[in-house]
Design brief:
Elements (H helix, E strand, L loop, with lengths): L8 E4 L6 E2 L2 E2 L3 H10 L4 E5 L6 H10 L9 E3 H12 L3 E4 L18 E4 L8 H12 L3 E4 L5 E3 L5 E3 L2 H11 L4 E2 L5 H11 L6 E5 L2 H10 L3 E5 L16 E3 L2 H9 L2
Parallel strand pairs: 1-4, 1-12, 4-5, 6-7, 7-8, 8-11, 12-13, 13-14
Antiparallel strand pairs: 2-3, 9-10
Length: 256
């Protein structure tokens, strides 16, 4: 394991890192408290599209995590900002609970197709409707392109990435990805904390979206072996450190 280096702040993934399903990972609640007690600034950064930002915050607080509204950054927030700036009318493929963040967005004559994690929508009829809109000039916006995730049954399941990629291939277009691993997403969280990338670590369970995305954006990338972690997946990506879980990563960060 390579040395952690001098880190002053942390970006922390939620699903698979703080939580697996609705269960905190070992000692995660206490670990987050420890970061705050040590005065290490952090932001929770999530690609989740299964619930609105407000519901996610409420769920975290109900499970015992001491976190404030301003400390949670989600890809849904980034998508909403893009939609508002460009005045887009959208066809959404999102979980119903996530639609709270988009209730007042026009869906008439869509100029964009917005895709997140929405298993009920990933079938031929709906995807073919999206295909037709894209072929007529609508743009494709991916909340994220995660390949897979760990679902409540404890197994790995397809994420939205394969379906986004299928539409890209069929229509010969490129999606606009708004969540991790995009540099702009990491930079928004860093700017909010007022810290520089080289002094910040990203802690997560996704070797691509968390670790590689962070490293490409100038941060350190630490992997935790919980959630969707698969040993040896994307062997070309080398985490700056690896830990059994989030609490162990926090211990290392606090001991620097």
């Amino acid at each position: 394991r390579s040395g952690p280096g001098a880190m002053k702040a942390a970006l922390i993934d939620i699903a698979g890192t703080l939580l697996v399903g609705n269960d905190p990972t070992p000692n995660a609640v206490e670990a987050l408290k420890k970061l705050r007690q040590r005065g290490i600034p952090f932001r929770l950064v999530s690609n989740t599209t299964k619930e609105s930002r407000a519901k996610l915050l409420c769920r975290l607080q109900t499970l015992g995590f001491e976190v404030s509204d301003q400390e949670v950054f989600t890809s849904l927030t980034a998508a909403r900002s893009l939609i508002d700036v460009e005045h887009l009318r959208c066809k959404f493929l999102l979980h119903p609970d996530a639609m709270e963040d988009f209730t007042d967005v026009s869906t008439e004559n869509p100029t964009a197709v917005v895709i997140g994690y929405a298993p009920p929508s990933f079938h031929y009829t709906v995807l073919n409707d999206c295909f037709r809109l894209l072929m007529k000039g609508a743009q494709l916006i991916a909340i994220h392109k995660g390949r897979f995730l760990k679902t409540e049954d404890g197994e790995l399941s397809l994420g939205p990435g394969p379906f986004v990629t299928g539409l890209e291939y069929a229509c010969n277009v490129q999606s606009r990805v708004v969540g991790k691993p995009q540099r702009s997403f990491f930079e928004a969280a860093l700017n909010d904390m007022g810290v520089e990338a080289q002094h910040t670590v990203m802690i997560g369970d996704d070797i691509n979206d968390d670790v590689k995305g962070a490293q490409d954006s100038g941060l350190k990338g630490w992997i935790v072996k919980t959630g969707k972690y698969v040993a040896g997946f994307q062997p070309d990506v080398k985490p700056d450190a690896d830990f059994e879980n989030f609490a162990e990563a926090v211990d290392a960060l606090c001991n620097i």
